[in-house]
Amino acid sequence: MSNSLAADLIIPIIKIIIVGLFPLIMVMVMVWLERRVVAFIQLRLGPNRVGFQGILQPIVDAIKLFFKEDITHTGVDKVLFNISPVLVLFSSILAFCFIPLGGTMQIGTYNLNFWVAESPVGLLLIIGISSISVFGVIFGGWSSNSKYPLLGALRSVVQILSYEIPVAFSVLSIIFFSQSMNMIDIVNRQKDAGIWYGFMLPVSFVIFWISVVAETNRAPFDLPEAESELVAGFHTEYSGIKFAYFYMAEYAHMVLASSLAVVLFFGGWLPPFPNVAALSFLHVIPGFVWYLLKIMFFLYLFIWIRGTFPRYRFDELVRLAWKWLIPLSLLNILVIAFVRSFA
Amino acid sequence: MAFKEILLNMGPQHPSTHGVLRLKVALDNEVVMKVTPVLGYLHRGMEKLFENRTYQQITPLTDRFDYLAAISNNLGYLLAVEKLMGIEVPKRAQYIRVIFTELQRLASHLAWVGFFANDIGAMSVLLYGFIEREDILEIFEEYSGARLTVHAFRVGGVPTDINDKIIDMINTFILKLPKRIADIETLLTGNRIWKHRTIGVGVISPEDAISLGLTGPSLRSTGIKWDIRKDIPYSSYQDFQFEVPTSANGDLYDRYVLRLEEIKQSMRIIRQALDTLPQGETLTKVPRVLKIAPGEVFHSIEAPKGELGFYIKSNGTDKPERVKMKSPSFINMQSLETMCLGNLFADIVAVLGSLDIVLGEIDK
Amino acid sequence: MIEKLENYPLLKQVYQNLENRFAGALLGATFEKDELCVTADRSNLISILEFLKNDNGFNALNDMVGLDNMNTKKEGEKRFTILYLLYRFPGSARIRIKVDIDENETLPSIYSLYRASDWAEREIYDMFGLNFSGHPGLTRIYMPDEFKDFPLRKDFPLEGK
Predict the structure, then answer these.
(1) Beta strand pairing call for C80-88 and C93-101
(2) Among all residues of chain A, which has the CA nearest to that of B119?
(3) If contacts are CB pairs under 8 Å, which of residues 77-106 in chain C contact chain B?
(4) Neighbour order of strands in the sheet with B31-38
(5) In angstroms, rounded to a whole number, what is the distance separating the alpha carbons of residues A93 and A99?
């Protein structure tokens, strides 16, 4: 009785708390990492004073932001203005419920799963939930009653709507092979196939990655918040903790995007070559560590891209989506379906 | 749907207006319909101040115009004063002046490439340019003690001779710079996004450029070969071999390529000047109280940003009757609207960056 | 005058053209320190500039300079002087046109000839309070709109007020 209570209630609650905190912790790591890595790319030092190599810098920043005066200027739609930062952050954290952060671990007789919820349509749910954030962006930009946020929000909507399509198509090619939209199944099928889908479907992955960078509003697609034009885009008028919410949400989205890339295309918690006997010692390292290593690679890629590329212009961004990525992903789907049905 | 213009106010507080510039922008969606620069936020009344300072006291004030190319301002002003007085500067001083103005051109162009790239979103290039600029500023510091507002020259020549240490520093720098330029070129020149953002944007025709009085790299990018260093040589520029790069399209990409090419040409000039540095005096005897007989003179030089001219009218006292500065940034700024119309909102920032403006020079 | 220009064939040609065209209308000419300066009257300013631009190739306006001669002018002279610095490429020739003007007089705007004169005329209006007729938008360029005085006039104090 007590055992099942623990299994049914306490462990899930602990898991929910951990999964809720996981993106926030990653956000802190990312804030520090981004500032340091971009600094090194630019031949600077970056923050290195607070704590060892400046690792406490994000905490100090957060404290500063939380205690900063929260300005709500006149003329805003108060309800939407207050709700939008929450909506943006909430949507990106909620999506982590369906991301497997690791495999199943046997503790005695209890099977500890490294995910909060398993759903047969997990993939759809993740894409759906994370898309809610676009509402936060629109509401935030519109309710600010200011021109820069409005322009930023308009750009954001067009951008996210445009790039949602190639994401969906590239994910569709995964489903052809996995025959499931359950995130755990997708990983397990990659184990069965003996090859990660990223190597099997490179075109899908490239499309996915470009689109996902665009959807997270990161450089070179950071138009909604292009500082040289729109000051800070849709969150120009936000300050204090609400600004911190938007800021954290951007990084949480990056973590989510990297997690999706890892789970869908690079075998989630699986070590490299999971079926090769000679490499079976890699299974000793827990799946969560493999997952972490992989998403760190993709998060690093985000920063690397940011430090290297100039920014797209708005019309070219939309042109890239509609003239290149969408036709390419359609063609990709067609080829994959053709190969799949005859092979 | 009825067309409704958005009126957008950029600045004076805005991340990318290069100082305290204000632009009133009218947008149709994101297409620019009208750009009206509003100036004067940095107006310090320098020209009024000049009328109440002696000729020597004005020299350090000219540093404050274009603070990214202070030495060029010094040179422009001093050449005008010297022409007004009718004195000849010793050959060695002329060469030293050339070396330092060309170093200043390098510093200004490197900062420009960085700011321009930063406006387009490639922020690493800014720091790459700045780390090289830092070396130049250290050379200036070694020579004059100041980094930004250098006050490197005096009426009649240069105050101190350059020593071996400075020559060594310059030589090391000249050896090091091409590698950094190659880095910048790797990051930008062939980059597809960079090309998308700059080719065919901010185009100005040669006719418009002449009518608007555009000078410097912006004018040369329209295909007009006009460089005062070549066409009306001053300060011994006729002694050096260098090319005046031009290109035909008059867009942002051409301006970028031209400036990188000018950096290479400037290095050539510095190398030649160091190799053929003549011996001798560096300062002619000039009276301590400089009274210049009534007269008027206009002299212009090729500053990094374009033609920098000084009109000076003397009245027999030790203070000028009138000093008028023809600042390249002012003229370049005037052509902003012509280059922006019909482009997208994001291009305003890019065009503004490409014009190489310094508000200290526009607002005087 | 002409003999001073002996070593400068280009300027000599330009000056002769001007002499021939506007025989009596030129109020004077000087050639000092390699710079040719022609004094014109404000009534025929536009025609001189048109002639220089269209027939002599002075295609660019370098700058416009305003001068306040309050302290140096002789009896009967006008208080202000406007200088038009022109140059031409190719050929790198420069010429200066000088026009005297009084406080309450108006000069024709040369915006239709040289677009560069837009801000230059605004600057002179701002600093000296001189008006240009036909300018597309003659407003203050540096000083705030509600500013009453003209800073570069010699009677504007350096401090105080």
Answers:
(1) antiparallel
(2) A228
(3) 83, 85, 89-90, 92, 94, 96
(4) B6-10, B22-28, B31-38
(5) 11
Rounded Cα distance between B328 and C17, Å, is 31
A interface mutation test: which of B31, B113, B188, B193 has the most A CBs within 10 A?
B193
Asked if the B42-331+345-357 domain carries CATH number 3.40.50.300, the reply is: no
Beta carbons of B321 and B295 less than 8 angstroms apart = no
* Residue-wise pLDDT tens digits, C100-120: 888 888 888 888 888 888 888
Instruction: Indicate yes or no: CB of B187 within 8 angstroms of CB of A308.
Output: yes
Q: Is B318 exposed, middle or buried (0-12, 13-18, 19+ CB in 10 A)?
A: middle
pLDDT at B289: 82
Cβ atoms A140, A246 nearer than 8 A: yes
Convert the pLDDT of each residue in C74-89 to its tens digit.
777 788 888 888 888 7
| Residue (of B308, B302, B301, B305) closest to B354 by Cα position | B305
Predicted model pTM: 0.86
- Whether A256 contacts A23, CB under 8 Å: yes
> Average per-residue pLDDT in chain B?
85
Nearest to C60 among B213, B313, B334 (CB): B213
Is the complex ipTM more than 0.95? no
Of B122, B194, B345, the CB nearest to A229: B345
B16 touches chain A (CB under 8 A): yes
* One-letter amino acid for residue C118 of the chain: D
Nearest to C158 among B48, B313, B330 (CB): B48
Cβ contact B–A (≥3 pairs, < 8 Å): yes
* B348–A229 C-beta distance less than 8 A: yes
Alpha carbons B266 and B285: distance in angstroms, whole number: 30
- Count of domains forming chain A: 1
A214 CA: distance to closest CA in chain B (Å): 14
Cβ burial of C74 (10 Å; 0-12, 13-18, 19+) is exposed
> Domain range holding A29?
2-341
Contacts with B215 (C-beta within 8 Å, 6 or more apart), sequence order? B226, B306, B307, B328, B331, B332
Instruction: Give residues with Cβ within 8 angstroms of A300, minimum separation 6.
Output: A33, A37
Q: Can you tell me which residue has the tokens 């009208």?
A: B34
Residues of C in contact with B213 (CB under 8 A): 60-63, 114-116
Chain A interface includes B131 (CB < 8 A): yes
- Closest partner CB to A228 (pick from B6, B15, B194): B15
